[in-house]
Design goal:
The chain is mainly α. The chain has helices at residues 16-47, 49-85, 89-123, 129-134, 136-148, 150-166, 170-192, 206-215, 223-247, 263-294, 299-315, 317-335, 339-366, 368-373, 381-398, 401-416, 420-444, 451-473. α12 (317-335) runs parallel beside α16 (401-416) and α17 (420-444) runs antiparallel to α18 (451-473).
């Protein structure tokens, strides 16, 4: 079957069109990705505030396992982008097959380990008595299911990162949209069952809910049902994505024979991927440390922390999309020997990201309570307290929005260039020299600001990261590809090996 082609010419012509053509599907893709968690947050918020707090506890530990293998997906995207820019389809295909074998095998091992260690990991978190009694068991139920789904999650990540490096961001977006749509439907059913399902609360739908409840005794699985819905729909998306990649003519020329491990390719994936894995693992450990500190406060503070962080993830979608588009733009242009064009693309994306997030910052600062209220049930004293904490947190975080946009784009540029070690250092500086120590000093010990210190410290770390990243980027030490510059010159059908 004829191969697909990248959706835009990234290495020639104007920059704005290919940048936006790559970025907008990535923004939508990330929005859909976040929609999994937001769907859980909304429905579990109606289930109980404690369930939202359980997600706040569970996700940093889950992300730690995801980050261990996640760096190698980033490495695959870098190599595919640079080989595509150098017109070497064979090398890009071989990278794709080896990436799938290596990453999915690792995810399977990590998933089994996570399942059996889930309760022990949660026991390591210091927390108040109320959090331990009410929230920790719910977090464990969610985590155990999610760990077993890691191979499905990472299979889809391989598909999406390879396509991004290739320059086709629309196809993963369409597959993700179908997966999320299915999740939105089955998530509330698995959480609530039918009888007390808020999905059927509006007039006209209540009769449907009553009829379905009469046909089955299924009463829902609570937070465990949310995890099952996410894992099962992710798995379906993974199957579709890999079928398109291997048999549908999408992406680079990858064949089943490319699944056989090639030591040179895996060595390159490890060399580029380990710094990103270390970066993401440091971020996950930072999230765990932050969660441990936040867990010392009341359940309402824990819920507000997790809720507002999810809102922040949505707000940062434009910068995340532009950062990943910059990754592709820089990677392909360096592969084509055009470092100046790669630099211009980075500054263009930075200006757009900062501008969009400054507008979002104004909206978040002026209307925090209506925004937060979308994600919470109403009518209880605990929900009102959580709303107040979350609204204040959102206003404080609004100050960092522009800096975070700049930070995401610059990190994307470094990764696209293959300078994953620099990206790692920058991320660690923002987190471990900024956010974590500031939160500890302001909120815990001596804790002069109480829970307000959590919000201040969190925002300050990202401001520091954005400033340091921009200054480092101006040094220009990143303008060199990491692939063999002659790899695109081989005969048709050959597969040059990465350095």
């Amino acid at each position: 079957m004829e191969e697909s082609k990248p959706q835009e010419d990234i290495t020639e012509g104007a920059l704005v069109r290919p940048m936006l053509a790559i970025a907008w599907p990535l923004v939508v893709f990330q929005l859909l990705n976040v929609a999994y968690n937001v769907t859980d947050t909304i429905w579990l918020g109606h289930y109980s505030a404690d369930a939202v707090g359980a997600l706040s506890i569970a996700w940093p530990l889950i992300f730690l396992f995801i980050s261990i293998a996640g760096g190698f997906n980033s490495a695959g995207a870098i190599l595919v982008a640079q080989y595509t820019g150098a017109d070497s389809e064979g090398s890009a295909g071989k990278v794709t097959g080896n990436q799938l074998t290596f990453v999915v095998g690792m995810a399977a091992i990590l998933g089994v380990a996570g399942f059996f260690l889930s309760d022990q990991l949660l026991a390591l978190l210091p927390s108040g008595a109320a959090t331990t009694e009410r929230i920790i068991p719910m977090a464990n139920d969610y985590m155990e299911v999610f760990y077993l789904g890691l191979p499905f999650l990472f299979t889809f990540f391989v598909f999406s990162t390879v396509m991004r490096g290739y320059g086709d961001t629309k196809t993963p977006m369409y597959v993700m949209a179908g997966s999320v749509g299915l999740n939105v439907i089955i998530d509330p059913i698995l959480i609530f069952g039918f009888a007390d399902n808020p999905l059927f609360a509006p007039p006209g739908l209540d009769a449907i809910g009553a009829t379905l409840a009469g046909l089955t005794t299924f009463s829902g699985l609570g937070i465990e049902g949310a995890a099952i819905a996410t894992v099962s729909t992710r798995g379906l998306g993974a199957v579709v994505g890999i079928a398109l990649l291997f048999f549908g003519g999408y992406g680079p020329d990858v064949r089943p024979t490319h699944l056989w491990p090639d030591i040179d390719v895996i060595r390159k994936l490890v060399d580029l991927g380990l710094p990103t894995t270390a970066e993401q693992s440091a971020a996950a450990l930072g999230m765990i440390t932050m969660t441990a500190m936040v867990s010392m406060f009341s359940p309402a503070v824990v819920a507000a922390y997790g809720l507002t962080n999810r809102i922040g993830t949505i707000v940062f979608l434009p910068s995340m999309g532009l950062g990943r588009a910059t990754n592709t733009m820089v990677g392909q242009n360096l592969g084509a020997g055009k470092p100046d064009r790669a630099e211009r693309a980075t500054w263009l994306a930075s200006k757009v990201a900062v501008g969009v997030l400054l507008v979002a910052a104004v909206v978040a600062f002026v209307f925090p309570e209506p925004i937060v209220g979308v994600f919470l049930g109403t009518g209880t004293e605990e929900a009102a307290i959580t709303l107040a904490f979350a609204a204040t947190y959102l206003q404080v975080r609004a100050v960092e929005f522009g800096f975070m946009g700049l930070f995401q784009v610059i990190l994307g540029a470094f990764r696209g260039a293959g300078n994953t070690r620099i990206a790692m250092v920058l991320a660690i500086v923002a987190l471990w020299l900024g956010r974590v120590p500031l939160v500890y000093l302001l909120a815990v010990n001596p804790g002069i600001l109480g829970e307000f210190g959590i919000w201040i410290g969190f925002a300050a770390g990202d401001i520091i990261g954005g400033i340091v990243a921009a200054l480092w980027f101006t040094r220009g030490t990143w303008k060199e590809a990491v692939i063999d510059e002659t790899s695109g010159a081989g005969e048709e059908g050959t597969t040059p090996t990465p350095e």
